[in-house]
Every structure is written in structure tokens, then in C-alpha cells.
């Protein structure tokens, strides 16, 4: 009790409130600003579709020609590689009436040595896992006579695609560092490994996780027009008319629609509400100047934004009584799930806040007033982030002519930031209501598609199958 009173006595509460006001003002997202951001998103989308390099938004062509309709039938596989784990999936499709007859999957960890080893070792390991998974097919897994197994490959790393079933690795991320793979077609590498491991299977589709999420949602609901990832990182994709894509390669067949992978984490606008905290975070990051949009709200960064504001208060206003707690200066020690947990704390004495701060920073005694300050910081950061996402969604709606229209549009959503952070989710829906009005927002539905990217890849293999059967 004495420690708490001494801590409270040393805090410069005037400076605390001034610092929080500065942060709140810098993060402000009034309706007018959100409307400008939605307009800028729309403008940048058009510029990115006009030519490569025309916008901070890459607006990458996925070469998806046919989205799953529900009519697909047969046995298909999915492989979802996006980090230190990968997922293999098997799905038996029964056509329009039976839909998904059976679905099985396994999650496998990649040994760290393979993430920095040789190209052949990595892909051989993946093919070995596939071989074992295929060997477990039951009698109810029915491959049509004369048909080869087909696989959809979700590969969540930067690739340059020229077709639905090929893609050259631009660079590794997420801890992978195998230099010899860069510049190679990852589909050919996987295909060669499957031959070496005697897996008789064809890669029918190469997609990223956002496109897979959209496809998985579209299979269940024809109104799905967008895929959105709100997790450690963030990205969006949507269904576009090819007639609206000036940069479509000449000489290539032009389907009516395709999916555009926006890479929206790199969106930039002069109207983005950035603060010095954000500038410092960006400068300290592994990619300064890149992913400006994503760094304002994604799960990778939201916790560290909150930590940096708390650190500023500790340094400038003696929030912890004049001392700087251990670990408070360590980047990313406060994670976004921690922020979500604190933000959800509605107890009178905010016990969860004290628990999280003790675990993260080693602070054993935390007055209730200080806990309230931390909740306030969480609230400012989460509100800003959620409202920015809403503005981005509205920008996409405008591009596809569905903003404020009396037509139902569904967003296929995946990612822990949306699924496990109720306050963030609530702010996002509230902001959509502000931007679109009551009637307009009622026609925009966000459907959670948990781990949908692997299933989506298998479904895209089905819709692009060389031996597609219609039930």
C-alpha cells in the first residue's frame, strides 16, 4: 500500500493527461477523415490497376478465373504455407447437393534448420508430409478413374505470378532465408519435390492466404466479394471485372472476372492519422517506410504502439513513480492479445490490466488510476485501427460499385485481430455504420472464415481442375 501511494505521489498527472491528449488528437479519425481515406483508397486502387508501380497498392493479379460455385465434385488437396507451421488438407466435394462430404487436415511444424537450409530440403520435407497424408486416404476418399490428384497451394510470401499455377518468389519473409529459392517458380519446386517423394499430384492453383479466404467464403456464399486478413499482418483482396484492369497482360486470355490481391498493408495517404509514436516504430522496424497502413493497426504492431506510449509516460510523466520497469524498453514484449485482454477488463479494480503489466514489464504494484490510463491508451490505439480498416473496406466497396447500394456484400474475414479482439471488432462495425449509414451498413456483412485459406486453396484447385466434374 505504501509503495502504491508513493508511486501515485510521484506521477506527474498533468503531463500524463497532456501526453494522452496528444496521442488521442494524433490518432483522431473523425468521419470526414475516414471519408477522405476511403476516397484515397479508391483512387490508389485505380492507379495500381492502371500499371505496375502506379500506386503504393501493388494490386497484384491472381489469375483466378473461376471462383468456387458449389458445383465442384471430386477429391482435392490444399497446402497452406505461411509461417513456421503449414497445413495439409483433404476435401471430398459432392457437388451442389452434398457440398463438402468430408474434410480432414493436419498442421505440421517446420524445423527451424529447414527455414534457412536448402531449397530442396524444405520442399522435400513438405512433399514427405504430403505423401504421408495421402497415404491415410480412407475408402470414402474417391478419386475418379483416370484422374490425377490436384492441389491448391496457399503460399503467403511475395511472389510474381503470370498464371494461376505458377509464381516466382520475390523474397522470403517470416524468418525464412533460403537465397536459392528467390527468383524460382515455387510451384515447379514443389512439383519437383513431389516427384522425388513419389506423390502423384498436380498443383492446380497458387494463391495467397487472402485469396484463399475469399474463395472459401465464396463457396458457401455467392455474395462474398472481398477477402480480408486481420491478424499478425493485414491484407485485402476482392473480385474485379477484368475490363477494369488496364494492366492485364496483352495476349493472355481475359476471363470476365478475377481476384485482385491488393497488398493493402502498404497503402499510403496524407490523411492517415500518424503520430510520433508511429514514426518511431516505423524507423525501428525491419522495413522502414513500407507497410505504413498495416503498421497502424495489425496484430504485429498494435501491442507495441501501446507499449511505446506507456514508455513515453514512464519517461516523461513518471507513470511508474520515476523508475522505468524492466522490459518496458524491449520492443514487442507487449503483444496484441495482451492489449485485447486488458481492453476487455471490466472489473472494478481492473485486475487483468495489473496481471498483464506484471507479466510483461515486471511491475508488481500498479495503482488503479495507472491501470485506467493504460486502458485509455488501448482504447485510443484500437479505435484508430478499427476505423482505418472500415475506411479501407468502404474504399473497396466504392471501387466495385457497391457503396450504399441496396445489394448484399459479404466480406470473408480471417485473423485473430478480428476474431479474438471484441472491442476492435465492435469499433470496426460501428465505423462502417458511420460511413455507410444504417441502411448501407446493413447490406455489408462480415463473415468469419477461420483458417479458411487452406480450404479456399483446395476449392480453387477444384474450380481450376483440368478434369473438373460438375455434379
Please tell me about this protein's structure.
By secondary structure, the chain is of the alpha/beta class. The chain has 2 domains: about 1-60 and about 220-450, Hexokinase, domain 1 (3-Layer(aba) Sandwich); about 65-205, 2-Layer Sandwich (Nucleotidyltransferase, domain 5). It is about 45% helix and about 20% strand. It has 16 helices and 14 strands. It has helices at about 1-10, 15-25, 30-50, 95-100, 110-115, 120-135, 185-195, 210-220, 275-285, 300-315, 335-345, 350-360, 370-400, 415-420, 420-440, 450-465; strands at about 60, 70-80, 85-95, 100-110, 150-155, 160-165, 165-170, 200-205, 225-230, 235-240, 255-260, 410-415, 445-450, 470. It has a 6-stranded mixed sheet. Strands 2, 3, 4, 5, 8 and 14 form a 6-stranded mixed sheet that branches. Helix 2 (about 15-25) runs antiparallel to helix 10 (about 300-315), helix 3 (about 30-50) crosses helix 13 and helix 8 (about 210-220) crosses helix 16. The longest helix is centred in the C-terminal third of the chain and has 32 residues, at about 370-400. The protein is globular. The protein starts with a helix and ends with a strand. The model has no long low-confidence stretch (mean pLDDT about 90). Its EC number is 2.7.1.-. It is an enzyme of class 2 (transferase). One of its GO terms (molecular function) is fructokinase activity. Pfam families: Hexokinase_1, Hexokinase_2. Pathway: Carbohydrate metabolism; hexose metabolism; Carbohydrate degradation; glycolysis; D-glyceraldehyde 3-phosphate and glycerone phosphate from D-glucose: step 1/4.
Amino acid at each position: 500500500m505504501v509503495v502504491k501511494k508513493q508511486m501515485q505521489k510521484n506521477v506527474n498527472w498533468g503531463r500524463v493527461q497532456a501526453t494522452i491528449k496528444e496521442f488521442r488528437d494524433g490518432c483522431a479519425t473523425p468521419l470526414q477523415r475516414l471519408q477522405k481515406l476511403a476516397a484515397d483508397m479508391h483512387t490508389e486502387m485505380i492507379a495500381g490497376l492502371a500499371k505496375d508501380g502506379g500506386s503504393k497498392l501493388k494490386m497484384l493479379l491472381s489469375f483466378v478465373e473461376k471462383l468456387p460455385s458449389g458445383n465442384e465434385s471430386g477429391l482435392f488437396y490444399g497446402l497452406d504455407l505461411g509461417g513456421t507451421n503449414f497445413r495439409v488438407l483433404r476435401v471430398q466435394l459432392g457437388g451442389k447437393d452434398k457440398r463438402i462430404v468430408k474434410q480432414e487436415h493436419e498442421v505440421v511444424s517446420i524445423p527451424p534448420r529447414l527455414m534457412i537450409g536448402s531449397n530442396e530440403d524444405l520442399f522435400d520435407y513438405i512433399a514427405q508430409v504430403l505423401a504421408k497424408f495421402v497415404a491415410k486416404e480412407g475408402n470414402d476418399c474417391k478419386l475418379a478413374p483416370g484422374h490425377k490428384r490436384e492441389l491448391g497451394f496457399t503460399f503467403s510470401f511475395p511472389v510474381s505470378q503470370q498464371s494461376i499455377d505458377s509464381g516466382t518468389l520475390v523474397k522470403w519473409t517470416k524468418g525464412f532465408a533460403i537465397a536459392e529459392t528467390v527468383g524460382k517458380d515455387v510451384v515447379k519446386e514443389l512439383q519437383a519435390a513431389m516427384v522425388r517423394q513419389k506423390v502423384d499430384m498436380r498443383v492446380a492453383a497458387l494463391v495467397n492466404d487472402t485469396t484463399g479466404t475469399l474463395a472459401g467464403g465464396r463457396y458457401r456464399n455467392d455474395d462474398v466479394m472481398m477477402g480480408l486478413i486481420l491478424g499478425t499482418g493485414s491484407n485485402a483482396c476482392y473480385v474485379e471485372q477484368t475490363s477494369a484492369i488496364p494492366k492485364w497482360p496483352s495476349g493472355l486470355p481475359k476471363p470476365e472476372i478475377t481476384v485482385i490481391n491488393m497488398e493493402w498493408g502498404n497503402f499510403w495517404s496524407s490523411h492517415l492519422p500518424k503520430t510520433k509514436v508511429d514514426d518511431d516504430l516505423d524507423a525501428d522496424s525491419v522495413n522502414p517506410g513500407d507497410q505504413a497502413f498495416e503498421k497502424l493497426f495489425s496484430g504485429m504492431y498494435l501491442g507495441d504502439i501501446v507499449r511505446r506510449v506507456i514508455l513515453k509516460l514512464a519517461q516523461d510523466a513518471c507513470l511508474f513513480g520515476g523508475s522505468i520497469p524492466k522490459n518496458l524498453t524491449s520492443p514487442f514484449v507487449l503483444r496484441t492479445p495482451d492489449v485485447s485482454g486488458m481492453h476487455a477488463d471490466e472489473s472494478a479494480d481492473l485486475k487483468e490490466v495489473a496481471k498483464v503489466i506484471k507479466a510483461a514489464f515486471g511491475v508488481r504494484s500498479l495503482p488503479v488510476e495507472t491501470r485506467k490510463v493504460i486502458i485509455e491508451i488501448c482504447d485510443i490505439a484500437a479505435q484508430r485501427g478499427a476505423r482505418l480498416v472500415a475506411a479501407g473496406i468502404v474504399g473497396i466497396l466504392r471501387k466495385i460499385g457497391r457503396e450504399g447500394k441496396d445489394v448484399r456484400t459479404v466480406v470473408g474475414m480471417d485473423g485473430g485481430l478480428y476474431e479474438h479482439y471484441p472491442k476492435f471488432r465492435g469499433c470496426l462495425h460501428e465505423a462502417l455504420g458511420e460511413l455507410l449509414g444504417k441502411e448501407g451498413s446493413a447490406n455489408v456483412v462480415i463473415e468469419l472464415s477461420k483458417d479458411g485459406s487452406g480450404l479456399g486453396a483446395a476449392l480453387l484447385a477444384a474450380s481450376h481442375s483440368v478434369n473438373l466434374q460438375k455434379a
